Transcriptional regulator, PadR family (Brevibacillus centrosporus), 111 residues
Amino acid sequence: MRINKELMKGSTAILVLTMLEKKAMYGYELIKELERNSNGVFSLKEGTLYPILHTLEAAGIVQSYWQEAEGERKRKYYQITEAGMGHLKDKKEEWVSFRTAVDRLLWEGQS
């Protein structure tokens, strides 16, 4: 099922941070993991992901570093910072409140 881009807009950063909470990743790896973990629902383009990562990095929520894999070219990896962990915790709590309110409104009175 395709998700409307407007619905995704507000949740993409929290999804990216949740993936980076598990481990540091380079951009293409992050795109593939988001897609795999969402059963294809979240399929980001590089043009969507990298501006999010750059914004998060400018805010100190993620940091990047270059690393060379065995016999491969260098890749830019992103990892969540300590400040990013606190930010993610806050965003998850905010998401639960939002989701609960939306669910209540959508399904209230239905059996």
